[in-house]
Amino acid sequence: MIYDGHVHYTGALPEDYLKLMGYMDKYNYTDDCCKNIDAFFRQYQDIQKLTKPESNLSEHYKERVAGICAYMRKSHVFGFNLISGMDTDIDRLKSRILGTIAGFQATSYKAKITLCFIKEANGRIKNLDGNILAKLDAWLAVTLDVIPYIHGFDICGYETVKTESIQDTCDLIKDLTFFRNKYGFLLSSHAGELFVLYDPADILQMFEKLLPLHLDSIGHGTFLWIPDEFLNISPDINKLRKRLLQEFIKRHTLFEICPTGNALLSPLKCPENISRQYLKKLGLRYSINSDNPTIFKTHARREAGLLSP
Ligand SMILES: [Zn+2]
After folding, report:
1. In angstroms, rounded to a whole number, what is the distance separating the alpha carbons of residues 68 and 194?
2. What spacing in Å lies between the alpha carbon of 291 and ligand 1's midpoint?
3. In the β-sheet with 79-85, what is the strand arrangement from edge to edge?
4. What is the arithmetic mean of pLDDT over 287-298?
5. What share of the chain is helix, strand, coil (3-state, %, to 5)?
6. CATH number of the structural domain spanning residue 30
7. Domain range spanning residue 110?
8. How many angstroms does the Cα of residue 5 sit away from the middle of ligand 1?
9. What is the number of structural domains in the chain?
10. CA of residue 115 to ligand 1 center, whole Å
11. Is the sign of the CA dihedral 257, 258, 261, 263 positive or negative?
Protein backbone atom coordinates (compact mmCIF):
# COMPACT_ATOMS: atom_id res chain seq x y z
CA MET A 1 0.00 0.00 0.00
CA ILE A 2 1.55 3.26 -1.12
CA TYR A 3 0.69 6.37 0.85
CA ASP A 4 2.20 9.65 -0.34
CA GLY A 5 2.94 11.66 2.80
CA HIS A 6 4.45 14.72 1.09
CA VAL A 7 2.57 16.29 -1.83
CA HIS A 8 2.81 20.00 -2.61
CA TYR A 9 -0.05 21.89 -4.16
CA THR A 10 1.94 22.38 -7.35
CA GLY A 11 1.33 18.70 -7.84
CA ALA A 12 -2.30 19.49 -8.49
CA LEU A 13 -3.07 18.61 -12.00
CA PRO A 14 -0.60 16.64 -13.98
CA GLU A 15 0.40 16.42 -17.57
CA ASP A 16 -3.05 16.50 -19.20
CA TYR A 17 -3.87 19.79 -17.56
CA LEU A 18 -0.54 21.37 -18.47
CA LYS A 19 -1.00 20.24 -22.06
CA LEU A 20 -4.45 21.74 -22.10
CA MET A 21 -3.06 25.05 -20.87
CA GLY A 22 -0.38 25.00 -23.56
CA TYR A 23 2.24 24.89 -20.86
CA MET A 24 4.00 21.85 -22.23
CA ASP A 25 4.62 23.67 -25.51
CA LYS A 26 5.81 26.83 -23.83
CA TYR A 27 8.54 25.15 -21.84
CA ASN A 28 10.03 21.77 -22.19
CA TYR A 29 9.82 21.69 -18.44
CA THR A 30 10.84 18.10 -17.91
CA ASP A 31 14.23 18.71 -19.52
CA ASP A 32 14.81 22.23 -18.30
CA CYS A 33 13.87 21.66 -14.71
CA CYS A 34 16.51 19.02 -14.25
CA LYS A 35 19.35 21.20 -15.50
CA ASN A 36 19.78 23.48 -12.54
CA ILE A 37 18.21 24.63 -9.34
CA ASP A 38 17.30 28.12 -10.61
CA ALA A 39 15.33 26.68 -13.51
CA PHE A 40 13.67 24.28 -11.11
CA PHE A 41 12.36 27.07 -8.88
CA ARG A 42 11.31 29.31 -11.78
CA GLN A 43 9.21 26.50 -13.13
CA TYR A 44 7.98 25.54 -9.69
CA GLN A 45 6.55 29.04 -9.34
CA ASP A 46 5.10 29.05 -12.84
CA ILE A 47 3.35 25.74 -12.36
CA GLN A 48 2.12 26.83 -8.96
CA LYS A 49 0.37 29.81 -10.58
CA LEU A 50 -1.34 27.46 -12.99
CA THR A 51 -2.44 24.85 -10.52
CA LYS A 52 -3.40 27.08 -7.58
CA PRO A 53 -7.01 28.16 -7.43
CA GLU A 54 -7.50 31.66 -8.78
CA SER A 55 -9.49 32.61 -5.73
CA ASN A 56 -9.93 31.44 -2.18
CA LEU A 57 -13.45 30.24 -2.81
CA SER A 58 -13.85 26.80 -1.44
CA GLU A 59 -15.43 25.66 -4.75
CA HIS A 60 -12.14 26.30 -6.52
CA TYR A 61 -10.20 24.31 -3.96
CA LYS A 62 -12.69 21.51 -4.27
CA GLU A 63 -12.19 21.32 -8.03
CA ARG A 64 -8.38 21.38 -7.88
CA VAL A 65 -8.16 18.90 -5.04
CA ALA A 66 -10.55 16.51 -6.77
CA GLY A 67 -8.11 16.68 -9.73
CA ILE A 68 -5.20 15.66 -7.50
CA CYS A 69 -7.26 12.80 -6.07
CA ALA A 70 -8.15 11.54 -9.54
CA TYR A 71 -4.46 11.54 -10.48
CA MET A 72 -3.52 9.68 -7.31
CA ARG A 73 -6.18 7.07 -7.94
CA LYS A 74 -5.00 6.58 -11.52
CA SER A 75 -1.48 6.09 -10.14
CA HIS A 76 -2.70 3.49 -7.60
CA VAL A 77 -1.61 5.61 -4.69
CA PHE A 78 -3.77 4.70 -1.73
CA GLY A 79 -3.81 8.06 0.04
CA PHE A 80 -1.81 11.24 0.53
CA ASN A 81 -1.08 14.30 2.64
CA LEU A 82 -1.57 17.51 0.72
CA ILE A 83 0.70 20.33 1.86
CA SER A 84 -1.37 23.50 1.57
CA GLY A 85 -0.41 26.98 2.74
CA MET A 86 -1.78 28.51 5.94
CA ASP A 87 -3.64 31.78 5.58
CA THR A 88 -3.50 34.72 7.94
CA ASP A 89 -7.22 35.35 7.50
CA ILE A 90 -9.44 32.87 9.32
CA ASP A 91 -12.32 33.05 6.83
CA ARG A 92 -10.03 32.37 3.88
CA LEU A 93 -8.34 29.59 5.84
CA LYS A 94 -11.72 28.01 6.65
CA SER A 95 -12.80 28.03 3.00
CA ARG A 96 -9.45 26.57 1.96
CA ILE A 97 -9.74 23.73 4.49
CA LEU A 98 -13.42 23.08 3.78
CA GLY A 99 -12.92 23.23 0.00
CA THR A 100 -9.98 20.81 0.23
CA ILE A 101 -12.01 18.37 2.32
CA ALA A 102 -14.90 18.69 -0.16
CA GLY A 103 -12.44 17.71 -2.92
CA PHE A 104 -11.39 14.59 -0.97
CA GLN A 105 -15.01 13.70 -0.33
CA ALA A 106 -16.13 14.31 -3.93
CA THR A 107 -13.76 11.54 -5.01
CA SER A 108 -14.12 9.45 -1.79
CA TYR A 109 -10.40 9.68 -1.43
CA LYS A 110 -8.34 8.99 1.67
CA ALA A 111 -6.28 12.13 2.10
CA LYS A 112 -5.37 14.73 4.69
CA ILE A 113 -4.22 18.34 4.73
CA THR A 114 -0.88 19.45 6.08
CA LEU A 115 -1.07 23.17 6.82
CA CYS A 116 2.14 24.82 5.83
CA PHE A 117 3.95 27.94 7.02
CA ILE A 118 6.38 29.51 4.58
CA LYS A 119 9.76 30.89 5.58
CA GLU A 120 11.23 33.92 3.86
CA ALA A 121 14.94 34.27 3.12
CA ASN A 122 15.50 36.20 6.38
CA GLY A 123 13.88 33.48 8.46
CA ARG A 124 10.61 35.31 9.08
CA ILE A 125 7.43 33.30 8.64
CA LYS A 126 5.47 34.86 5.78
CA ASN A 127 1.97 33.57 6.51
CA LEU A 128 1.76 33.84 10.26
CA ASP A 129 -0.06 36.53 12.11
CA GLY A 130 -0.21 36.61 15.86
CA ASN A 131 -3.86 35.68 16.16
CA ILE A 132 -4.40 33.09 13.47
CA LEU A 133 -3.46 30.11 15.63
CA ALA A 134 -5.89 31.16 18.38
CA LYS A 135 -8.62 31.70 15.77
CA LEU A 136 -7.92 28.32 14.19
CA ASP A 137 -8.12 26.66 17.60
CA ALA A 138 -11.44 28.38 18.37
CA TRP A 139 -12.88 27.18 15.04
CA LEU A 140 -11.58 23.60 15.38
CA ALA A 141 -12.99 23.36 18.90
CA VAL A 142 -16.50 23.76 17.46
CA THR A 143 -15.91 22.07 14.08
CA LEU A 144 -14.84 18.64 15.21
CA ASP A 145 -15.63 16.87 11.91
CA VAL A 146 -12.74 18.75 10.26
CA ILE A 147 -10.09 17.41 12.65
CA PRO A 148 -9.67 13.90 11.14
CA TYR A 149 -8.80 15.53 7.80
CA ILE A 150 -5.88 17.52 9.19
CA HIS A 151 -2.58 15.68 9.31
CA GLY A 152 -0.71 18.51 10.99
CA PHE A 153 1.62 21.41 10.27
CA ASP A 154 4.74 21.82 8.21
CA ILE A 155 7.25 24.62 7.68
CA CYS A 156 8.73 25.06 4.22
CA GLY A 157 10.11 27.85 2.02
CA TYR A 158 13.64 29.20 2.22
CA GLU A 159 16.02 27.17 4.30
CA THR A 160 17.17 29.34 7.15
CA VAL A 161 20.28 27.88 8.56
CA LYS A 162 21.85 30.60 10.72
CA THR A 163 21.11 30.22 14.40
CA GLU A 164 19.63 33.73 14.62
CA SER A 165 17.31 33.26 11.63
CA ILE A 166 15.98 29.87 12.73
CA GLN A 167 14.57 31.35 15.94
CA ASP A 168 11.16 32.20 14.42
CA THR A 169 10.84 28.62 13.19
CA CYS A 170 11.67 27.22 16.63
CA ASP A 171 9.22 29.58 18.36
CA LEU A 172 6.49 28.59 15.92
CA ILE A 173 7.10 24.86 16.43
CA LYS A 174 6.79 25.40 20.19
CA ASP A 175 3.44 27.18 19.64
CA LEU A 176 2.23 24.39 17.34
CA THR A 177 2.94 21.78 20.03
CA PHE A 178 -0.32 22.97 21.60
CA PHE A 179 -2.19 21.58 18.57
CA ARG A 180 -0.34 18.29 18.79
CA ASN A 181 -1.37 17.91 22.41
CA LYS A 182 -4.96 19.01 21.90
CA TYR A 183 -5.84 17.58 18.46
CA GLY A 184 -3.12 15.01 17.77
CA PHE A 185 -1.75 16.97 14.81
CA LEU A 186 1.76 15.98 13.69
CA LEU A 187 4.57 18.51 13.32
CA SER A 188 7.05 18.60 10.50
CA SER A 189 9.62 20.94 9.04
CA HIS A 190 11.46 20.96 5.74
CA ALA A 191 15.20 20.97 6.46
CA GLY A 192 18.48 20.06 4.79
CA GLU A 193 16.97 19.78 1.32
CA LEU A 194 18.95 22.47 -0.52
CA PHE A 195 22.09 22.18 1.57
CA VAL A 196 24.45 22.76 -1.37
CA LEU A 197 23.76 26.49 -1.00
CA TYR A 198 24.98 26.70 2.60
CA ASP A 199 27.97 26.20 4.86
CA PRO A 200 27.78 22.67 6.33
CA ALA A 201 28.57 24.00 9.83
CA ASP A 202 25.51 26.30 9.65
CA ILE A 203 23.26 23.46 8.54
CA LEU A 204 24.42 21.35 11.47
CA GLN A 205 23.58 24.21 13.84
CA MET A 206 20.10 24.39 12.33
CA PHE A 207 19.52 20.67 12.94
CA GLU A 208 20.88 21.04 16.47
CA LYS A 209 18.23 23.72 17.09
CA LEU A 210 15.47 21.52 15.65
CA LEU A 211 16.47 18.37 17.55
CA PRO A 212 15.05 19.23 21.00
CA LEU A 213 11.70 20.30 19.49
CA HIS A 214 10.68 16.67 18.90
CA LEU A 215 9.37 17.07 15.38
CA ASP A 216 7.41 14.05 14.18
CA SER A 217 8.99 14.29 10.77
CA ILE A 218 11.55 16.17 8.71
CA GLY A 219 10.82 17.04 5.10
CA HIS A 220 13.74 15.55 3.16
CA GLY A 221 16.65 16.05 5.62
CA THR A 222 18.91 15.03 2.75
CA PHE A 223 22.01 16.58 4.32
CA LEU A 224 21.77 14.24 7.29
CA TRP A 225 21.20 10.91 5.54
CA ILE A 226 23.05 11.34 2.22
CA PRO A 227 25.93 8.80 1.96
CA ASP A 228 29.44 10.14 2.76
CA GLU A 229 30.76 9.75 -0.76
CA PHE A 230 28.42 12.46 -2.08
CA LEU A 231 29.57 15.07 0.42
CA ASN A 232 32.74 17.07 0.37
CA ILE A 233 33.02 18.04 4.04
CA SER A 234 35.73 17.82 6.69
CA PRO A 235 35.95 14.64 8.80
CA ASP A 236 35.09 16.65 11.94
CA ILE A 237 31.92 18.10 10.43
CA ASN A 238 30.99 14.67 9.10
CA LYS A 239 31.42 13.15 12.56
CA LEU A 240 29.05 15.77 13.96
CA ARG A 241 26.60 15.13 11.12
CA LYS A 242 26.51 11.41 11.91
CA ARG A 243 26.07 12.04 15.61
CA LEU A 244 23.10 14.33 14.92
CA LEU A 245 21.53 11.83 12.55
CA GLN A 246 21.80 9.18 15.28
CA GLU A 247 20.03 11.55 17.69
CA PHE A 248 17.09 11.95 15.28
CA ILE A 249 17.01 8.17 14.69
CA LYS A 250 16.90 7.62 18.47
CA ARG A 251 13.87 9.93 18.62
CA HIS A 252 12.16 7.95 15.81
CA THR A 253 11.84 11.07 13.65
CA LEU A 254 10.37 10.18 10.27
CA PHE A 255 12.35 11.38 7.25
CA GLU A 256 10.14 12.18 4.26
CA ILE A 257 12.34 11.18 1.37
CA CYS A 258 11.34 12.32 -2.13
CA PRO A 259 13.83 10.46 -4.37
CA THR A 260 13.55 12.45 -7.62
CA GLY A 261 13.43 15.83 -5.89
CA ASN A 262 16.17 14.99 -3.39
CA ALA A 263 18.43 13.72 -6.15
CA LEU A 264 17.86 16.82 -8.27
CA LEU A 265 18.55 19.28 -5.45
CA SER A 266 21.61 17.54 -4.04
CA PRO A 267 24.86 15.95 -5.25
CA LEU A 268 23.04 12.60 -5.39
CA LYS A 269 22.08 13.47 -9.01
CA CYS A 270 19.95 10.37 -9.53
CA PRO A 271 17.55 8.55 -7.21
CA GLU A 272 19.25 5.19 -7.81
CA ASN A 273 22.03 6.51 -5.56
CA ILE A 274 19.67 6.06 -2.62
CA SER A 275 19.67 2.41 -1.56
CA ARG A 276 17.17 0.71 0.71
CA GLN A 277 19.88 -1.41 2.23
CA TYR A 278 21.85 1.70 3.16
CA LEU A 279 18.80 3.34 4.76
CA LYS A 280 18.00 0.14 6.64
CA LYS A 281 21.55 -0.13 7.93
CA LEU A 282 21.28 3.42 9.23
CA GLY A 283 18.11 2.45 11.09
CA LEU A 284 16.37 5.45 9.57
CA ARG A 285 12.58 5.70 9.78
CA TYR A 286 11.56 7.02 6.38
CA SER A 287 8.73 7.30 3.89
CA ILE A 288 8.93 7.59 0.10
CA ASN A 289 6.99 10.47 -1.42
CA SER A 290 6.52 12.35 -4.67
CA ASP A 291 6.99 15.97 -3.44
CA ASN A 292 5.70 17.50 -6.70
CA PRO A 293 3.92 15.03 -9.00
CA THR A 294 3.47 17.67 -11.70
CA ILE A 295 7.01 18.96 -11.88
CA PHE A 296 8.63 15.57 -11.55
CA LYS A 297 5.99 13.78 -13.63
CA THR A 298 5.85 11.13 -10.96
CA HIS A 299 3.86 9.58 -8.14
CA ALA A 300 4.84 7.84 -4.92
CA ARG A 301 4.49 4.35 -6.40
CA ARG A 302 6.93 5.21 -9.17
CA GLU A 303 9.28 6.92 -6.69
CA ALA A 304 9.39 3.79 -4.54
CA GLY A 305 10.62 1.83 -7.54
CA LEU A 306 13.49 4.25 -8.23
CA LEU A 307 15.55 3.38 -5.16
CA SER A 308 18.27 0.79 -5.44
CA PRO A 309 17.73 -2.37 -3.43
ZN1 LIG B 1 8.48 19.53 0.16
Report:
1. 26
2. 5
3. 3-8, 79-85, 111-119, 150-157, 186-191, 217-220, 254-257, 285-288
4. 87
5. 55, 15, 30
6. 3.20.20.140
7. 3-304
8. 10
9. 1
10. 12
11. positive
Kindly indicate the confidence band of residue 307, based on its pLDDT and cuts at 50, 70 and 90.
Answer: very high
What pLDDT sits at residue 197?
84
Ligand 1 centroid to Cα of residue 142, in Å, is 31
CA 20 / ligand 1 centre spacing (Å):
26
Please tell me the distance between residue 106's alpha carbon and the centre of ligand 1 in angstroms: 25
Q: Is residue 285 part of a domain?
A: yes
Centre of ligand 1 from the C-alpha of residue 155, in Å? 9
User: Does the residue 16 lie in any domain?
Assistant: yes
| Among 74, 115, 75, CA closest to 93 | 115
Cα–ligand 1 centroid distance for 117 (angstroms) = 12
Confidence of residue 12 (pLDDT cuts 50, 70, 90): very low
| 79 neighbors 110 (Cβ within 8 angstroms) | yes
Ligand 1 center–CA 49 separation, angstroms? 17
Q: Would you tell me how many other CB atoms lie within 10 Å of the CB of residue 21?
A: 14
Distance between Cα 193 and ligand 1 center (Å)? 9
Measure 205 CA to ligand 1 centroid, in angstroms. 21
Cα of 7 from ligand 1 centre, angstroms: 7
Residue 129, Ramachandran bin (φ over 0: left; ψ between -120 and 50: alpha; else beta): beta
In this structure, the chain runs to a length of 309
**Which amino acid, one-letter code, is at 68?**
I
Q: Are 295 and 10 in contact (CB under 8 A)?
A: yes
pTM greater than 0.85: yes
Whether 309 is in a domain gets the answer no
243 located within any domain = yes
Give the range among 7-21, 61-75, 196-210 with minimum mean pLDDT: 7-21
Residue 138 has pLDDT above 90, yes or no: yes
Query: 292 C-alpha vs ligand 1 centroid, how far in Å?
Result: 8
Three-state secondary structure call for residue 246: helix
The pLDDT of residue 58 is: 78
